[in-house]
Amino acid sequence: MAALVAVFLACASLTGASSALAAPPPEPPPLIPPAPIHREPARYPAGATGAANVVLELVVKEDGTVGDVLVREGAEPFAAAAIEAVKAYRFEPAKRGDRVVSARIRVVVEFTPEADVPVEPKPEAAPPLQTIPPPPPPERVDEVRIAGTRLPPPSSPMEHRMARADIRLVPGAFGDPFRAIDALPGVVPTVSGLPYYYIRGAPPSAVGYFIDDVRVPYLFHFALGPGVIQPALVEEVSLHPAGFPARYGRYAGAIVAGRTRDPATELYGEGNIRIFDAGAYVETPLAKGRASVGLGGRYSYTGALFSLVAKDTTINYRDYNARASYEINDKWRASLLTLGSFDYASQIQYDDFGNGTERVFFASEFHRADLRLDRRGDDGAESRIGMTFGLDRTRIEGARFAQDFVFGVRARHRAPITRTFDLEVGADAMLDHYTGDVPSEYAVQPEEYAQARAFFSPRTESATGAWVSGRWHREDGFDVTATARADVFTSVGAVEVGPSPRLTTRLPVGDKTRILGVLGVAPQTPAFAIPVPAIGYRGLPGGLGFGWQKSAGVERDLPLKFLFKGMAFHHSYFNLRDFARNQNDFSFDEPQPVPNSPAQAYGLELYLSRRLSERIGGFVAYTLSRSVIGSTEIAKERVSPFDRTHVFQVGGAVYIGAGWRTSARFLTYRGWPDEGEDATPLRPPTRRLPAFYRVDARIEKRWKWRKDGYISLVIEALNASAQQEIVSRNCNTFDESGQQRCRDEKIGPIVAPSIGVEGAL
To answer: Which stretch of DSSP H or E encloses residue 84?
Structure first.
């Protein structure tokens, strides 16, 4: 575990020589030392023990990059880790008057076993410069002290981790941490722009969403709405397409996990005002830094905007986030995290007599309150005990509601057994008490009444799991993690057991190449295709679904700080209801009474990236895949209706200078299978609908504000090219001459422009 404190001792060479004249030379202009604007994370060396300090001397060149680096104090392996980190630092160069000059600075990197990987600290929050007595001429040394934050160690070779500094620059994501995951390989939206993803062939309901280990039903507001959690509260987001850490389970597909930032050590806040909503988050320390309190939220005024152009349409969303923490002593910290979200979308529909009736398309809300205790031991051990309360609520037909009262407890402990072996044990339990407004049996048809009782009658369901996970790691990067987990599910007398063993490997081949591998099994209870809060299957009909996950690939560090990852995967899905055999039979409103036949997804993912927060950063992501639904007694094997064979995107961000930064992204994927008149259960579709592509763009101008803050003007657009997506094709129409014509059904163009102002304290 490592914590980083970087101390910058800046010393610029004095220009000119001493004059031989008797008259004293004029006083030189004051020196403005280098100002740090970007710091790359430094990692605690694998296999190292104890604390250590490394003193480096380096040259900040006139363009703000780092030149020569010398080790003044410190031993291996800490010295190499410190050098690797500071070479990526970027500065506003030193100035003597109006002239830019090179500077020599000293950096002290302090390693301690209290944290694993420090995250890049927020540049704007750096403390001011402090002057210390200078060494003999011609040098003067200035000191800057910056505190780092903790970052958990990588927990899965399959994991894609995105830091906040990079997330906010992904074009088309509007700075939202969770929307940015669609820039990663293996992720395919049901419809472009909508935040319901198929990941490696697994449907949206098989993807689990977590924030600080707390399960939430969804992470995005309705349609093109942003995430339900304030970006200022989120430090990073991880996508686990397979072999996720032991603490996560009960989903047959992937896991999307967010981690909140560390408690504030000084007043901190962010906010934005856009054409469709406004949001802010502010956090401040209390009790001399031992406690902190933060509060934030977002409110959409889309209802007022829609009333100007579509008075019969209503779209509203809002959310809130709050957090309080208190450091009990040097080992224990207590925290309370609360969050909630509300979405509503409806339209007035008129009959032939002009009478209007409001039709609600979507009305849902959820609330969570999570209380936890965290302990960090002197030997690097970590413990967490948590308790969660929640409420989910969704409007259903006839102004009726379905509700789910949630209660959960969890505990886990991780400790180093030896220098190269860690052990984690844990357990968690969730109770869901469902209630619903069941209609009168005399007001609806008998089959409708039976269905309502099956889905909305009161019931209590439970899910209890336990796990043990061992991690063997060495200094050379070798890493093997084996996990044994099992969950027990109950519902109205039905009991099912879901084993979930996993094995992940990272094997170094030389200094810059790693071979990656994952094997795992992931169970899941019955679920609808699109997850809807408070609505589910009663009694676990048909038993559990399972995902068998198999992946292997390679990861390599490339020059210029590029990282390449190539993964081949094969996932098999059993007993899931989330795959319809064709689009004509697929319905988000109707339950699927029986599980579909086994399905599988296989393919290749390629990802080349350089951090977007660099002066020049970018990524290229390509997924070649196939999702297939198995045969039945009356139907042949066929391609999944949501299969996208090719998904390609390329994006980049450039810091132009003077506070200007721009980024753009191009995305294209192959069309859906054409479920035309030729497609039958015995004759699967052989054609594809036309491919779709879109262009996203973002440009930002930032001004510094007060000591550590900034104000930015941000112009951004999703689908700036205004492309429509073809979702079906009908060739049963004929023109006047009798020739057959095809008519395409399109969605869109779904375009989301945004002009707004962002700021931070």
So the answer is: helix 78-86
3-state secondary structure of 366: strand
Non-local (6+) Cβ contacts of 214 within 8 A are 337, 368, 370, 386, 388
Which pair of structure tokens corresponds to residue 359? 């039709």
Higher pLDDT, 66 or 516: 516
| Cross-strand pairs, 564 | 556, 608
CA 68 to chain CA centroid, nearest Å = 36
Give tens-digit pLDDT for 553-600.
Answer: 999 999 998 999 999 999 999 988 765 666 655 555 555 556 667 889
Name the token pair of 605. Answer: 């993912």
Q: How many residues does the chain have?
A: 761
Mean pLDDT of 684-698: 86
Residues 737, 744 contacting (CB under 8 angstroms)? no
Four-point Cα dihedral 275, 362, 523, 215, nearest 10: 50
What are 356-401's pLDDT values in tens digits? 777 777 788 999 999 999 998 877 788 999 999 999 998 876 667 8
* Cβ partners under 8 Å of residue 258, min gap 6: 177, 178, 210, 211, 212, 219, 229, 234, 236, 237, 238
Which residues is 274 bridged to in the sheet? Answer: 756
Element (H, E) at 164: helix 164-167
Beta strand 214-216 pairing with 208-211: antiparallel
Give the 3-state DSSP-derived string for 93-109, with helices as H, strands as E and coil as C. CEEECCEEECEEEEEEE
Kindly state the DSSP code that residue 175 receives in the 8-state scheme. Answer: T
Distance CA 98, CA 102 (A): 13
Using pLDDT thresholds of 50, 70 and 90, give the confidence band for residue 308.
Answer: low
CB atoms within 10 A of CB 167: 24
Residue 422: DSSP 8-state: E
pTM of the predicted structure, to 2 decimals:
0.77
